[in-house]
Amino acid sequence: MEVHRFGIKFFVADPASVRLYDFIQIFHGWIQKQTVENHLLIDVHNYSHIHNGPGILLVAHEGNFSMDMADGLPGLLYCRKTPTTGMPVDHLETILKSALQACNLLAGEVRFRMDDRGTESAADYANYADGRAAQCNPGRRKDIARPSA
After folding, report:
1. pLDDT in tens for each of the 149 residues of the chain?
2. Cα angle, residue 141 at apex, residues 18 and 76 outer, rounded to 5°
3. 147: which strand partners?
4. Can you tell me the distance from the alpha carbon of 101 to that of 89, in angstroms, rounded to the nearest whole number?
5. Residue 57 placed within a domain
6. SS3 letters for the chain?
7. Which among 117, 141, 128 is positioned nearest to 69, based on CA atoms?
8. Number of domains composing the chain
9. Domain that holds residue 125
10. What is the per-residue pLDDT for 32?
11. CA–CA gap between residue 99 and residue 105 (Å, rounded)
């Protein structure tokens, strides 16, 4: 089975500091400048009205980025939609690089950084291998690793 729809989430270190509306302007700026490497950035959707929902979504041809609010834990979620070349490990590396580039871009614009608890507990790895979750729908993801309290 070939799995190319996969996502990863990096949690915000200070959840109380997240102002979702700021990400509308930030993501529109990314579209104007096409700042994410190897991605055609297309549109921004505001889902902030949905409690613990997808937040602000940046749609790209290759994958979607969002300031996700699922489970009340804000963070940058990247969901890859298109396959990449190479072995599965190369695909995962591409996904991780795209998510980390977005985190680095955010770090230059707002107070956003990975949680201080470390990579293993800060990353919310999502499995989009089954058909229903393969839409990269943040509200229906299957969490494999959760942050510890």
Report:
1. 566 788 898 888 888 888 899 999 999 999 999 999 999 999 999 999 999 999 999 999 999 999 999 989 899 999 999 988 888 888 889 999 999 999 999 888 754 544 444 433 334 444 433 333 333 434 433 443 333 33
2. 25
3. none
4. 18
5. yes
6. CCCCCEEEEEEECCHHHCCHHHHHHHHHHHHHHCCCCCCCEEEEEEECCCCCCCEEEEEECCEEEEEECHHHCCEEEEEECCCCCCCHHHHHHHHHHHHHHHHHHHHCCCCCCECCCCHHHHEEEEECCCCCHHHCCHHHCCECCCCCC
7. 141
8. 1
9. 6-135
10. 97
11. 10
What's the CA gap between 135 and 81, in Å, rounded?
8
CA-nearest of 105, 98, 68 to 82 is: 98
Supply 110's token pair.
Answer: 């707002």
Report residue 4 as tokens.
Answer: 């190319």
147 inside domain? no
Q: Tell me the residue type at 66.
A: S
For residue 8 the two structure tokens come to 């990863």
pLDDT of residue 116: 45
Q: What pLDDT does residue 17 have?
A: 84
Task: Say how many residues make up the chain.
Answer: 149
